[in-house]
Design brief:
- The complex is a heterodimer of chains A (446) and B (193).
- Chain A is an alpha/beta fold and 446 residues long.
- Chain A has 21 helices and 13 strands.
- Chain A folds into 3 domains: 212 residues, Rossmann fold, CATH 3.40.50; 103 residues, Roll (Ubiquitin-like (UB roll)); 106 residues, NADH-ubiquinone oxidoreductase 51kDa subunit, iron-sulphur binding domain (de novo design (two linked rop proteins)), CATH 1.20.1440.
- Chain A has a 5-stranded mixed beta sheet.
- Chain B is of the alpha+beta class and 193 residues long.
- Chain B has a 4-stranded mixed beta sheet with strand order 2-1-3-4, with helices on one face.
- In chain B, helix 5 links the parallel strand 1 and strand 2.
- Chain B is elongated, with a radius of gyration of 18 Å.
- The chains are: A alpha/beta (446), B alpha+beta (193).
- At the A-B interface, helix 5, helix 7, strand 3, strand 7 and strand 13 of A face helix 2, helix 4, helix 5 and helix 7 of B.
- Bound molecules: flavin mononucleotide, iron/sulfur cluster and FE2/S2 (inorganic) cluster.
- The site of iron/sulfur cluster has 14 residues of chain A, from helix 17 and helix 19.
């Protein structure tokens, strides 16, 4: 089921450069879209393709584009979300580093479809060297008439600028990203109004993930129908999965949606099995914000069907026994990993990254952080475990942006599936106190 | 981030004369031109980055006020932003800022040991700077390189698949050369040329 859309030709020497990229079919979609299609036709192909946002939420891209406020006289903007800071996710970095023109090609077609004459790429501050790569690629485009005024003689103008962030996970949330792009603190905005109506500088704006936009060129070239025939059900196309944790071959893999999880973990072509011959214990399949699943539930659903890498299959069973595809950050835990310590680690992360605007998130992440800290360090009480579940349930759904949910889900899921490890921590303070990551597992796995 | 606060001493203005070179000012003009008319505030983060880089590696009230004047915005707008983002340093830092990833995927692959080892090796705690002002040690959240855990970033370079020998080597080179060394795989600049 080897199927490449985004990483097609990725191995060709020099594919980062415009001439090599073009020799291998690059930018054909720009010619096709700008010269032979109307913007609405492009939108319609994207709708037909069934492409869903690759940034985490999986919202249908064509539908999102059709919300853009056409009555407004303000300029429109396309903003590419390259903030990539969801723990476990490093696919956009790989894509932009290896094959930056794939993104630019998609952005030109998308901007044309949306009627935008300016587009920004918001890159997280830590990826400073990626800014250099993108700027080189953009320069090549200007030189070759693919950006700027009157692109390829089509009377369509577009400028793309790279904007670098400065270290803040929350700026990946689309409205926080827009605030940040306007030179402010990254505080998410209340929605509605949605960015499609009031986005950047209060103008109609679409924010899309890097990988989402990288698909658009292929869709224009081959048509939405062909794209929709790849994948499974409503999960059309391919997905980049960034695999990390205790596996033999961590890295970024492009899979056709619907690929079995078990094969992905154990096949030599992908993760290559668990490191050091250990046993698989659990997986977080879509970045740190989605629920963790123990081995039995990540390999098979509760109904006994094979779990697949698709939006629907990973969500099968709801949060009781399922998870989410999210951003495709696939984190694998082996038998020695301590779920409590890992949950504490992520809670610390969300506490640190909360922007502090809403009380449930600001206070709740702080409480979860401290309660988990005391459990992890051997000072927990049995009722702390239910206290955590309680805090999580009060954050969920009560905040301006989904970071609140993202902090609550992992805690609730870890307790749901691994309550015995939390209890063990409370019952054996001497063992857990000051033990290093993983080192207490020799006791719990007995 | 939200709990990061201005240290009181930062309110004390030093009133030192600050100005960018003509080259830098020209660079800033091109950045401002990336944004629509009247939206020059959008250039704030990039300009603060330049200020931090060119004015000694960290920001203070004088440099922030200077940036406010350049962009025709109020000083408080600059302080608001500088205190929000983790890559702006409001206290002096060493020449090399070592930022070790502490988040889950790195932590399970030895990130915690890397941090402890660096603390011992440099004789400082997280958040401190060595006496010779060469190294500052910080803990940061996921750097987006989890596939090559454990990872750290020194200024702008990523160092991946870390182990103790590699750290010894990196620190030794940084001590002995005046330039930031490239990670073992070629940097993109070299690959581009
Ligand atoms: C806390 C938080 C962090 C996010 N981080 C990212 C990110 O790093 N990259 C990204 O593309 N989307 C991120 N998102 C999702 C964006 O808000 C938005 O849904 C996405 O960029 C839309 O693009 P898509 O429809 O192409 O997926 C984040 C959302 C939240 C709530
Ligand atoms: S949920 Fe958290 S991160 Fe999101 S706006 Fe509220 S306080 Fe900020
Ligand atoms: S967790 Fe360290 S780079 Fe992602």
């Amino acid at each position: 089921m080897e199927r490449k859309i985004i990483l097609e030709n990725n191995d060709i020497e020099g594919i980062r450069f415009l001439d090599v990229y073009r020799q291998n079919g690059g930018y054909q979609s720009v010619e096709k879209a700008l010269k032979t299609m109307t913007p609405d036709e492009v939108v319609s192909e994207v709708k037909t393709s069934g492409l869903r946002g690759r940034g985490g939420a999986g919202f249908p891209t064509g539908l999102k584009w059709s919300f853009i406020d056409k009555k407004s006289n303000n300029p429109r903007y396309l903003v590419c979300n390259a903030d990539e800071s969801e723990p476990g996710t490093f696919k956009d970095r790989y894509l932009m580093e290896r094959i930056p023109h794939r993104l630019l090609e998609g952005m030109i077609c998308s901007s044309y479809a949306l009627g935008a004459n300016t587009a920004y790429i918001y890159v997280r501050g830590e990826y400073k060297y990626i800014v250099g790569i993108l700027n080189e690629a953009i320069k090549e485009c200007y030189k070759n008439g693919l950006l700027g005024k009157n692109i390829l003689g089509s009377h369509y103008d577009l400028d793309i600028y790279v904007h670098c962030g400065a270290g803040a996970y929350i700026c990946g949330e689309e409205t926080a990203l827009l605030e940040s792009l306007e030179g402010k603190r990254g505080n998410p905005r209340l929605k509605p109004p949605f960015p499609a109506v009031k986005g950047l500088y209060d103008c109609p704006t679409v924010v899309n993930n890097v990988e989402t936009l990288a698909n658009i060129g292929w869709i224009v070239n081959h048509g939405g129908e062909s794209f929709a025939s790849i994948g499974i059900g409503k999960s059309t196309g391919t997905k980049l999965i960034s695999a990390c944790g205790h596996i033999n071959k961590p890295g970024v893999y492009e899979i056709e949606l619907g690929f079995p999880v078990e094969e992905f973990i154990y096949s030599e072509a992908y993760c290559g099995g668990i490191k050091n011959g250990k046993e698989l214990k659990a997986v977080i399949p879509g970045g740190s914000s989605v629920p963790i699943l123990p081995k039995e539930l990540i390999l098979n659903t509760l109904k006994g069907e094979k779990r697949l890498l698709s939006y629907e299959s990973l969500a099968d069973g709801g949060f009781e026994s399922g998870s989410m595809l999210g951003s495709g950050g696939f984190i694998v835990y082996d038998e020695d990993d301590c779920i409590v310590r890992n949950t504490y680690n992520f809670s610390r992360f969300y506490h640190h990254e909360s922007c502090g605007q809403c009380s449930p998130c600001r206070e709740g992440t702080s409480w979860m952080d401290s309660v988990l800290y005391r459990i992890e360090n051997g000072n927990g009480r049995m009722k702390d475990i239910d206290l955590l579940v309680n805090i999580a349930s009060h954050i969920e759904g009560n905040t301006i942006c989904p970071l609140g949910d993202a902090s609550a889900w992992p805690v609730a899921a870890a307790i749901r599936h691994f309550r015995n490890e939390f209890e063990f921590h409370v019952e054996h303070p001497d063992i857990v106190r000051n033990s290093k990551h993983g080192s207490i597992l020799q006791y719990t796995n007995k | 981030m939200s709990d990061k606060q201005f240290k009181h001493k930062l309110y004390v203005k030093k009133n030192s004369e600050i100005s960018f070179t003509a080259d830098t000012l020209a660079k800033i003009e091109t950045i401002i031109a990336h944004y629509p008319e009247g939206q020059q505030k959008s250039a704030l983060i990039p300009v603060l980055q330049i200020a931090q880089e060119e004015l000694g590696g960290s920001l203070n009230v004088d440099s922030m006020d200077y940036v406010a004047r350049l962009l025709h915005i109020t000083p408080i707008e600059v302080y608001e932003v500088a205190t929000f983002y983790s890559q702006f340093y409001l206290e002096p830092v060493g020449k090399y800022v070592i930022e070790v990833c502490q988040t889950g995927p790195c932590a399970i692959c030895g990130g915690e040991d890397i941090m402890h080892y660096l603390e011992e090796k440099l004789h400082i705690k997280v958040g401190e700077t060595t006496e010779d002002n060469l190294f500052s040690l910080k803990g940061v959240e996921c750097l987006g390189a989890c596939g090559s855990a454990p990872v750290m970033q020194v200024n702008t370079e990523f160092y991946e698949f870390l182990n103790i020998e590699k750290i010894d080597e990196i620190i030794a080179t940084l001590r002995n050369t005046s330039e930031l060394t490239k990670p073992e795989s070629l940097s993109w600049k070299e690959r581009l040329s």
